[in-house]
Amino acid sequence: MSCRTIAGIEKSTKSNAIVFDPLALNNMPIDRSLTDRLGFSRSGVLSSRSVMLPELRHLMAMAPADSDTATLQRLVVDEDALHKPSAANRIKTFAFLRRLYGLNPQLPLYREFTRLCHLSPNDTTVLASSLAFAREPVLRACAEMVVATPIGQPLGREDFEAWVRQHAPGRYTHTMYVSFSHNLYASFFQLGFLGDAVGKARIRKRRNVRPASAAYAAFLDWLSGLNGLALLTGPFSLTLELSKDEHIAHLSAAGQQGLMRVAHAGGVLQLDFSAWLRPGESRLSF
User: Fold this and answer.
1) How many angstroms separate the CA atoms of 135 and 116, rounded?
2) How far is CA 200 from CA 153, 159, 197, 264, 283, in A?
3) pLDDT (tens place) for every residue of the chain, 286 residues total
């Protein structure tokens, strides 16, 4: 299978399969400092915890949209906004959330995530999943397996352990493989890819995607260098699991809401996210 590498993610040129390569970002012939400034990351934090979406949602609901890192740290650590049992736990929680999600408005990925969360709070779960995929190598690699599982089929903790063992054979102890699998299983449940429990598994479900979520995923693919209709099959956008018609309808609705400029006619799609970047910021190009 031939693949094209885009900002740390490989997109198959022969199908709509998502192929997330957690190592590709390191090997790209681009300025790595630019990917870091945009907010793409190689953080690798899921060995210790899940994506902690309940904590992130609570923090987003409490903090003003333009909160800087110091303000968020004060809320979590000094004011115990997330109700953690000890000062040490509050410090660890903030450090984890910062590594996974950025928590820095100087990073376009995080800044636009927070803006859209405040504009459309019901989108927070899907928005957070796109941001987490951009920043966590193991999570974005595992997305291929999860999205390839048909809707309605069960996925259990053991399936995630088998995936980790295949993805990183012989790299960890048995205890670490189990820990990774628990965190991945919990993470994809929190992010809405898994639903009701049946025995020791959960059922794959289709998430409720709204215009803001479609716009944000397209923004990540646009930052990665894609344009036009290729944005519909960019790796971040593919995790939304939308049909072409649904996808275009959501993006058109986002344009009507003033989130970005959208033009779609005669089989040509144009999305303009330039207003989402500040002076001196630029997307990747190849």
Assistant:
1) 18
2) 13, 11, 7, 45, 43
3) 223 333 333 333 334 454 444 324 334 445 678 889 999 988 778 888 999 999 999 999 999 988 999 999 999 999 999 999 999 999 999 999 999 999 999 999 999 999 999 999 999 999 999 999 999 989 999 999 999 999 999 999 999 999 999 999 999 999 999 999 999 999 999 999 999 999 999 999 999 999 999 999 999 999 999 999 999 999 999 999 999 999 999 999 999 999 999 999 888 999 999 999 999 999 987 5
Tokens 């970005």 belong to which residue?
260
The token pair at 176 is 């670490």
Q: What is the DSSP string of 206-249?
A: -----HHHHHHHHHHHHHTT--GGGGGGSHHHHTT---HHHHHH
